[in-house]
Amino acid sequence: MKSRPARTVTRRAHPGFSADPVRFWRALVRPLAHKQATPFYLFSAGPVEEALEELDAHFGHLPVRHWLSCKTQPLRPLLQWWRHKGLGIEVVSEFEFQAALAEGFAPERILVNGPAKQHWLPRQAKRGLRVNFDSMAEARALAALAKKLDWTTGVRWHTHEEFDPEEPEFDTQFGMTSDEAVTTLNWLRAERVRVEMVHFHLRTNVQSADVYERALKEVATTCRAANFAPKFVDCGGGFPPPRVMTRDGHAIDAGFSLADMGRLYERVLKWFPGAQELWLENGRWLSARAGVLVVTILDVKTRANMRHFICDGGRTLNALVSNWESHALVPLETRSEKLVPTTVNGPTCMAFDKLGRFSLPEDVHTGDHLLWCEAGAYHLPWETHFSHGLAAVLWHDGKTVRVVRQREEFDEWWGRWR
């Protein structure tokens, strides 16, 4: 077994996020609130650094490699920050792949996942990539290129633990069944393609280590039956992020434990003889905590049983995940009157456009700022242009805050048409 890959760990330049996230964000946003037009996103490297330290505390004695899930947070300064730490990036589309190259990731530090990539990867292919095949057709289409360019390849398993979260009685569209995976493995080896990885990804917000254990046992059993000893076991992502609630008020990570995962990974290394590393791609767990959406209250309406805030940002434009998750929402300004039921709405003409219903101080009023927390995962990828331009994006590198994307103006919003 090899020792875990070395990476640079730096002391946090802005400590205190984990101890008091609200204080952390308020301290960063207050100097910006009356200079930067809202809505805007503010993302920080500090919480990601703390997340990596937490993972090291539980898995640091194991040969674990962390990959940045590009789709979760396609933020240029985050990619640059991650690359400077000597870590690799996981991509699932042609644009993500091109972004990784543009930001200087060496091909061997790019892990290519996702479906149907035989239709774009040949246009972008580089020597030395790491590629997990998602289907038998994909493997056959890319095998010759994999040999020519000396790729490290693997097969994505579709385990019995993977299902459509919205309709659990149905499977998802990803990966290969055990029979398909074994057939593909044998064919690739016969073609002398270098196959060294197994991969699976269950879904987001996996409830407990028990789910991973069942999936890993299934993959390990099939690998033994196929006489295949992978060097790299890619467990995908799916760790549920802290401080995020379901719509009915339950903590998403209530049954999850990093300590349990650490004990599981110790056992897993024995199930895969010859395994050199375990690979993890936990995008949301790493980055959700690392951002806030800042909005301004434009108008206040009082109904018989509910106060309504109309804000300049909301679900439709900026926070689609509020459709199925509840995040903390806090006033920036100090307010102290009694709490009253309040619906926080966005500016679009849709009843759907609400960040949620909260108990907020009665003296929060028009012109105040609100911070929607845990906005560092899937908010940018799902941002929309619904009658408005894209929001500004700010980045905190641990020392200073800078604008890394200006808010979209009308000429950009309308000028894309020809």
Q: Assign the structural class, choosing from mainly alpha, mainly beta, alpha/beta, alpha+beta, or little secondary structure.
A: alpha/beta
Give the CA-based shape: globular
- Termini, distance in Å? 58 Å
Radius of gyration: 23 Å
β-strand percent reads 15-25%
Which regions contain 5 or more consecutive residues with pLDDT less than 50? 1-15
Q: Give the % helix.
A: 25-40%
Return the average pLDDT rounded to an integer.
Answer: 95
The number of strands is 19
* Separate helix tally: 12
Query: Mind summarizing the main beta sheet?
Result: 9 strands, mixed
At a glance:
It contains twelve helices and 19 strands. It has helices spanning about 20-30, 45-60, 75-85, 95-100, 120-125, 135-150, 180-190, 210-225, 260-270, 285, 315-320, 410-415; strands at about 40-45, 65-70, 90, 110, 130-135, 150-155, 195-200, 230-235, 245, 275-280, 290-300, 305-310, 325, 330, 340-345, 355-360, 370, 390-395, 400-405.
Observed structural traits:
alpha/beta; single chain; disordered N terminus; 19 strands; 12 helices; 418 residues; 9-stranded mixed β-sheet
